[in-house]
Amino acid sequence: MTATPAIEGWFTTGDQPALIGERCTTCATSYFPPTAAAAGFCRNPRCEGTEFEQVELSRRGTVWSYTDTRYQPPPPYSAPEPFAPFGLAAVELPEGIVVLGQVAAGYGPDDLRVGMHVELVVEPEHTGEALIWRWKPLAEGSAA
Amino acid sequence: MSVQPVIVAGVGMHPWGKWGRSFVQYGIHAAREALQDAGVPWTDVDLVVGGETVRNGYAGYVAGSTFAQALGWNGARIATSYAACATGAQALDTARARILAGMSEVAVVVGADTTPKGFLAPNAGERWDDPDWLRFRLLGMTNPAYFAMYARRRMDLYGATSEDFAQVKVKNAKHGLANPNARYRKEVSVDDVLGSAVVSDPLHLLDICATSDGAAAVVLVSEAYAAKAGLTDPVRIAGIATVTPTFPNTVLDMPMLATDASGGVDPERTFKESIGDAVYAEAGIEPGDVDVAEVYDLSTALELDWMEDLGLCKRGEAEALLRAGDTTIGGRIPVNPSGGLACFGEAVPAQALAQVCELTWQLRGRARGRQVEGARVGITANQGLFGHGSSVLLTR
């Protein structure tokens, strides 16, 4: 069985996974999550655009901030038994969008700093088979 | 744009806690206390604005009507506001607008809630187009995790420490000791905070506010009614900001999974800075004129953010003020003399009104055991989900 994304159309899987954004063909503003096309117009109030193209967002970015979750979040988060804490990071992409994500398995706040470089990976959710995007720290000195 | 003031004739609260009663009982307790404080008969009230509670069924969705009926139908007009943490300020703004339009003379604004223990959770069901549901479903991203990210930025960018955050709690716990409406009235030490469990690194349990039951009410009247009623030297509302973000909103905001794209240039000011700017502009008052502030310490670190967002100090300097004792009662610019959310816990639709109650008492010189001496100008600030935020400026 091939694992499927936890949410349809938000990210690609495979060796070089990427978040899927939408770019306004009029003002070139990128959006994530990709919900602008369905709404039918560009949210930039100075733009009249109504057409979007799907784009893969940059796979690397810099940490805007980070934390972890030591207490089990309420549903609809699906927690493993027993619950295991996990890291969370907000990452600024070169497109200027800050995107939240869990931190890759095996990494936590001690491995992160504001401004450090991270890369998008795709891993199974904490329960079940479905895949979710995560942020993985890059070795010091790696370029964004 | 300078806006005419309206008069705060009376304020009242139901103490915060876990009392096991209905939000209606809390609300009318606060409303009757506020009316009594104002010396205004209920039959004079021509407008009731309720802060909606989303946790108490239909009666909570139509809170304005619920309170009006519970106080005894008197034919008053009603309105109900919901704006997450800014609910009370938006309700107040609605009342102010009708008064300034000459459509109301006496308004009662009431917010009350009962709140379950633990993390605030999204609505049930499969809600794939609701960001508040998605952040839990996809990421397990709780409110404290957002607070922790803001706190961590202070540490990595400005050198804040866990001890600094703990000192905010120590200060607010001390401030709230004599406040009869506060839920927690106990001194807390830095060691207590640092010894409590980490919820989301770097925030400990005692860095994060609890959820509470509580109610607050404000009686607003027109200048004309105040003169007729012989109210002398009253507290005035000089400004209320309920502005929304401007595009692009580049600071990560609850409950969103991402920001707008900056387009390579950061906006002139952040959303939270724009809340303060808007209220100062309405009131024609400068940050340097402020004597006392009640800000939304959902976490200890957020109090420090707010001091900067409101222009009470420069970006990155809040810890220095805290360490110098400037934000303690008796200091240069006391912050959260009520004890803040640290001593109250959050009762969402009541909280912004509770801030106004506290500043009214402060500006009247009647905040017993926690008085900021000579306070004449006070500011509140809060922010909630989905681009809601508010600030109220009071003067005397």
Description:
The complex is a heterodimer of chains A (144) and B (396). Chain A is an all-beta fold. Chain A has a domain at 60-137: OB fold (Dihydrolipoamide Acetyltransferase, E2P), CATH 2.40.50. Chain A is built from one helix and eight strands. In chain A, the strands form two sheets. Chain A has a five-stranded mixed beta barrel with strand order 4-5-6-8-7. In chain A, strands 2-1-3 form a three-stranded antiparallel sheet, with no helix packed on it. The termini of chain A are far apart. The model of chain A has no long low-confidence stretch (mean pLDDT 94). Chain B has 396 residues and is α/β, with parallel strands linked by helices. Chain B has two domains: 6-118 and 213-232, Thiolase/Chalcone synthase (Peroxisomal Thiolase, Chain A, domain 1); 131-206 and 237-395, 3-Layer(aba) Sandwich (Peroxisomal Thiolase, Chain A, domain 1), CATH 3.40.47.10. The mean pLDDT of chain B is 96. The chains are: A mainly beta (144), B alpha/beta (396).
Q: What best-fitting shape of chain A do the alpha-carbon axes yield?
A: globular
Which CATH class of the domain at 60-137 in chain A? Answer: Mainly Beta
Given the helix and strand composition of chain A, which structural class is it?
Answer: mainly beta
Order of helices and strands of chain B: EHEHHEHEHHHHEEEHEHEHHHHEE
Kindly report the spatial arrangement of strands forming the biggest sheet of chain B: 3-2-4-7-1-8-11-10-9
End-to-end distance of chain B = 20 Å
CATH topology of the domain at 60-137 in chain A: OB fold (Dihydrolipoamide Acetyltransferase, E2P)
CATH class group of the largest domain in chain B = Alpha Beta
**Average of per-residue pLDDT values of chain B:** 96
Annotation field: number of helices of chain B: 14
Question: What is the CA-atom radius of gyration of chain A, in angstroms?
Answer: 16 Å
Major beta sheet of chain A, specifics?
A: 5 strands, mixed, barrel
Q: In the CATH hierarchy, what is the superfamily of the largest domain in chain B?
A: Thiolase/Chalcone synthase
Strand order of the largest sheet of chain A: 4-5-6-8-7
For the sheet with most strands of chain B, the description reads:
9 strands, mixed
First-residue to last-residue Cα separation of chain A? 34 Å
- Classification by helices and strands of chain B: alpha/beta
Kindly state the number of beta strands of chain A: 8
InterPro entries (chain B): Thiolase (IPR002155), Thiolase-like (IPR016039), Thiolase_C_2 (IPR055140), Thiolase_N (IPR020616)
Pfam families (chain B): Thiolase_C_1 (PF22691), Thiolase_N (PF00108)
Protein name (chain B): Lipid-transfer protein
GO molecular function, one term (chain B): acyltransferase activity, transferring groups other than amino-acyl groups
